[in-house]
Amino acid sequence: xxxxxxxxxxxxxxxxxxxxxxxxxxxxxxxxxxxxxxxxxxxxxxxxxxxxxxxxxxxxxxxxxxxxxxxxxxxxxxxxxxxxxxxxxxxxxxxxxxxxxxxxxxxxxxxxxxxxxxxxxxxxxxxxxxxxxxxxxxxxxxxxxxxxxxxxxxxxxxxxxxxxxxxxxxxxxxxxxxxxxxxxxxxxxxxxxxxxxxxxxxxxxxxxxxxxxxxxxxxxxxxxxxxxxxxxxxxxxxxxxxxxxxxxxxxxxxxxxxxxxxxxxxxxxxxxxxxxxxxxxxxxxxxxxxxxxxxxxxxxxxxxxxxxxxxxxxxxxxxxxxxxxxxxxx
Length: 330
Hints:
Blueprint: H1 2-28, H2 35-46, E1 50-54, H3 61-71, E2 72-73, E3 76-80, H4 87-91, E4 92-99, E5 102-109, E6 116-120, H5 127-139, E7 141-144, E8 147-150, E9 156-161, H6 174-177, E10 180-185, H7 191-201, E11 213-214, H8 215-225, H9 232-243, H10 254-259, E12 260-262, H11 266-282, H12 290-301, E13 306-307, H13 309-313, H14 318-329
Parallel strand pairs: 1-9, 1-10, 2-11, 3-6, 6-9
Antiparallel strand pairs: 4-5, 7-8, 12-13
Helix pairs in contact: 1-2, 1-8, 9-11, 9-12, 11-12, 12-14
């Protein structure tokens, strides 16, 4: 019986990796490089989380999200965030219609009612609009005129923001940043990647992207990763890493005590655990290792630690702080 269960689990892991690789390969038909970014976005999607992509204009953030949507049998909508965007423009509003000779109010759904929402330049929206996004990201529902409407399932927000141009932008509040599963930096391509981008986009015909996975595939993958066990010693390592991001913790390294004002929330630990389980499956293992945890710390926590005034003044980067935390806990 035990051998049979082991074989079944091996088949499930193989199917998980095969589906993941199929989605990744389809995305790579159009997106050049950014392999780690693609993997991390897919990991977040499998875990049911939202992703914040940060990078200067022209690096393919929007193209990446659009291509991911094309590879999945899911509904996709894009909203360009601007300072004059209102909450109703996203969530929907009550409109007056005529029914059987009577005028009544009817709810008209906004673009938030989809499976994948691309929130382009999310930091250009006002705090009022961002607060409306906060409810949808956390509760996965919309409340209008006192009535709550559930969103479609699955539901993911893939948001982009430009770190350079800050005029007319509104920094995302910490509470909303905490709702993002990962924050990922999109880097400038290398020389070879630049050449390949020109080869793929400079011709008469762009690569054709096909839908290769469905909502059911994502659900099956999510059901499997949740079952992956984590040893008490590995979980203890995860907790130590997260606690070490707090300057008041006795085990936090000197760089944290000096440059960090607030450490990660428990939601950060939950993100690391979920992502580590997926990472273990992608490595063909049915248990979480410390290396899986360490790999997921930076994308899961870089937006969840708040630097002190001294840290910002000296140009300290969250990634540098987190790498020091990982080294110290090791």
